[in-house]
Amino acid sequence: MKFFSSRLLFVAISMVVFGACVPQKQMQTAAGSFINGDALPDAPELAARGPYKVGVRTLTLVNKSQPDILHSKGGVDPLYDRPLKLEVWYPAIVPEGKTMLAVYEDVLGSANDSLRPVVPFTFKGRALRDAAPVNGSAAFPLVIVSHGYPGSRVLLSYLTENLASKGYVVVAIDHTESTHSDTKGFQSTLLNRSKDILFVLNEMAEAGKAGSGSFLSGLADAGNTALIGYSMGGYGVLNVAGAGYSEKLAGFFTAMTGGSKAINVRTTNNPQFEASLDSRIKAVVAFAPWGMQRGVWDAEGLKGLKIPVFFVAGSKDDVSGYEDGTKAMYNGAINASRYLLTYENARHNVAPNPPPPESLQPGLSMQEYYHYAEPAWNERRINNINQHFLTAFLGVYLKKKDFDKYLLVNESAGANAWPGFKQRTLVGLELLHAAPGK
User: Fold this and answer.
1) pTM to 2 decimals?
2) In the predicted model, is pLDDT for residue 24 greater than 50?
């Protein structure tokens, strides 16, 4: 009996020390009814949802008379009208009795790849489809999100919903010819990423104007915009933010397309590129941006980054590279205030939602699972950490919030005591910061 009582005491103490004191609601969320983006018990402080309810709508735009690079011949590019589907999350009014529970549609696999058949799936999110936007006197900052290759506009829904709940209008692009459903030649992705982003920025600016007739009228402030990109999306947003592409990339593109020079307008020192730089863009986030290893940028191109940049990378990234990839970009962007969050022992997937259950189906390529998963990290944990740091970064540079302590961690606290992280949870992370000129 004495042994039994001592054992019970040990169990009780262990439950308190090691987390059984977590509120029951959180435990249920983590164990059973989890939806992408929910805060786990060990989530850092700023991962929690903000004060706004979230609405979501799907829009389709058409960018007319664009170079049809997939049908270029002899250096001549025919023109086509380029459709772009968007998902838009925003602060919304949710009537009593309505539940914020959206259903998103996506696919696994890759179109035109016989080894990776397209497999449709759905998953849930915490937003209300077609909800009325909130009424207010001030517009919300705009955030534009660009996915990887291939990818989709809902690949980062854990983050897009979270930011909308904190007072942002978030617009994610389905980049035509670069989604799982319509994957085509890589030359389209090389050319169109930055062009799509700029087009969407301009369209959102028009929609946000008073009297536009759009639900975004008076809601979206395009004059206060941030860009978020993952992998090839990172390639695109950094170019839009000022990092001109190199002559090496231009030469590769011309050879790849049999003579087209359409990408030259996005290269360093090209007058059209310089004219496209947009003062409405206040900050940029690049998750595992592709291209540095392959000479997409040189030292001169990286000097063009002059707005704040938040890089996120895995130290074992075998797609975009780390030391000669993302970290080299961080070191080379000497004219920007910049940050580098590193997930130690992570590979490339430091941005997306967790793997959908459908990716576990027998007979599917392991690529469907490893398009989302990390071998050494829990993707839900990564999602919460990303929510925390992007809330801080965008809060500082778009909303002028006093969140510097969450970003300047080695200055405000010791390496083992970052603000916002719960006891015993800070492991496997490094956050660097460099001011312009350093």
Assistant:
1) 0.92
2) no
